[in-house]
Amino acid sequence: MTDPRPATDPLPVNDRTRHRRLADQGSLDRADLDAILDAGFVCHLGVVIEGRPVVVPTVYGRDGRRLYFHGSVASRSLTGGAPVCVTVTHVDGLVLARSVFEHGVNYRSAMIHGVPHKVTDPEEKLAGLRCLTEHATPGQWSYARLPNRKELAATTLLALSLEEASVKIRTGPPDDADGPDAELPVWAGTLPLTSTWGTPVSDPALPPGTPAPEHVARREGTGQG
Amino acid sequence: MTDPRPATDPLPVNDRTRHRRLADQGSLDRADLDAILDAGFVCHLGVVIEGRPVVVPTVYGRDGRRLYFHGSVASRSLTGGAPVCVTVTHVDGLVLARSVFEHGVNYRSAMIHGVPHKVTDPEEKLAGLRCLTEHATPGQWSYARLPNRKELAATTLLALSLEEASVKIRTGPPDDADGPDAELPVWAGTLPLTSTWGTPVSDPALPPGTPAPEHVARREGTGQG
């Protein structure tokens, strides 16, 4: 039997990406990184402003080994050229152990370190915005009106390499089934949490009866994250 | 008619909390801050380590105007005494506009700035851990085994004042119904995203048939976030 997973090189380890805490939850598999990033569309972008941390939620898209994110040209957190930490987390449920100390969360999380660069080439900028749009809403780029020159100029697009990344995943039941607490008359297990797309809500300004396009409507009831 | 909302003072504004971008999405209502924090249990904690940002997902609990979070005493991001930025975000759906430029996300987000302090007083530590536990799983503190002295010593508990906070909320349809794009034959609206608690999954190590306690089981099917 061959390994069914795609052949990937492991994630490189350095002082920032080494799993110091809860190393058993760490993964060096690039396929895990890609899967976590592809399952979401909002990251938490950390920057240092005047020596202090600032963490901003923002949308992102993945194109191979590159992450794109964007914002207004006036944004203080999207300057490019400065170190960032981008973290994407999916919370999969509560881990309810026999003891409070062993309580935790089932989750998948990716942390990417790097120095993003501002994309200025108009063609790459358009490709990056396409990636962002299609990442969140597949099919939308060829459906909605594309950005014009003025809108492109008003948008800052940053690209971040996915070379330096750290992945942590926790799944399964609590860890205290093999100790003395296992004798306690206490239920233990997990309470799963799932994210689901709902029914598309039409803009009230639309002509009545305008249907949502198939690429949007078909997501209803499917999971996200 | 009196205002049905609880009387609260507005959130103070300074250079860090002023809404620079998308100011119409900003809220200075402390009740909004409390509601966003109470609707979640995982935050993104930003710290500066060796001059670079690090953003770590971690659980938190709110007790009045104080946020607690915890971790291992060995954690590099939980030292206390250094500035942090704690961000809690609920993603409520995609905003699909007529033009790509107007696409966005409906969300509720709170960003708290401050310098947390390490809680060392044993009684306050126990109260903080109780807050953390009850915040994520109401009813669990009086059900599971409480931390013993050794476990308390192995836990770092940080407390952060909620004085310096910034809240942003976006709801409703896209913003491009009043421009020339409204004439386009393009559907516009939102695709809601909801988080729901699932069926409790018992630890396979439990005696078969052990039921989940009522305070856990009753959450099945209810929303989170």
Report on this model:
The structure is a homodimer of 225-residue chains. With 225 residues, the first copy, chain A, is of the alpha+beta class. Chain A has one domain: Pnp Oxidase, Chain A, CATH 2.30.110.10. Helices cover 15% and strands 36% of the residues of chain A. Chain A is built from four helices and twelve strands, in the order βαββββββααββββαβ. Chain A has helices at 30-38, 122-136, 149-153, 214-217, and strands at 26-27, 42-49, 52-63, 66-72, 84-96, 104-114, 117-118, 155-161, 165-170, 189-197, 201-202, 223-224. In chain A, strands 1, 2, 3, 4, 5, 6, 7, 8, 9, 10 and 12 form an eleven-stranded antiparallel beta sheet that branches. Residues 1-7 of chain A have low confidence and may be disordered. At the A-B interface, strand 2, strand 3, strand 5, strand 6 and helix 2 of A face strand 2, strand 3, strand 5, strand 6 and helix 2 of B. Strand 11 (201-202) of chain A pairs antiparallel with strand 10 (189-197) of chain B.
What is the secondary structure topology, with strand pairs?
The structure is a homodimer.
Chain A: E1 26-27, H1 30-38, E2 42-49, E3 52-63, E4 66-72, E5 84-96, E6 104-114, E7 117-118, H2 122-136, H3 149-153, E8 155-161, E9 165-170, E10 189-197, E11 201-202, H4 214-217, E12 223-224
Antiparallel strand pairs in A: 1-9, 2-3, 2-5, 3-4, 4-8, 5-6, 5-10, 6-9, 7-8, 10-12
